[in-house]
Amino acid sequence: MNLMYKSTRSNETVTASQAILKGLASDGGLFVPVALPKLSVDIDELKGMSYQEVAYIVMKEFLTDFTEEELKNCINKAYDSKFDTEEIAPIVKADGAYYLELFHGATIAFKDMALSILPHLLTTSAKKNNVKNEIVILTATSGDTGKAALAGFADVENTRIVVFYPKGGVSPIQEKQMVTQKGANTHVVGIKGNFDQAQSGVKAIFGNKELEKELDAAGFQFSSANSINIGRLVPQVVYYVYAYAKLLAEGEIVKGEKINVVVPTGNFGNILAAYYAKNMGLPIDKLICASNDNKVLYDFFETGSYDKNREFILTNSPSMDILISSNLERLIYKIAGCDDAKNKELMTALTTAGKYDITADMKAELKDFYGNYATEAETAEVIKAIYENTGYVIDTHTAVAAKVYKKYKEATKDETKSIIASTASPFKFTRSVMNAIDSKYDAMGDFELVDELSKIGNVAVPNAIEEIRTAPVLHDTVVEVDEMTDAVKKFLGM
Question: Which residues, 6+ apart, have CB-to-CB distance to 377 below 8 Å?
Answer without folding.
Answer: none
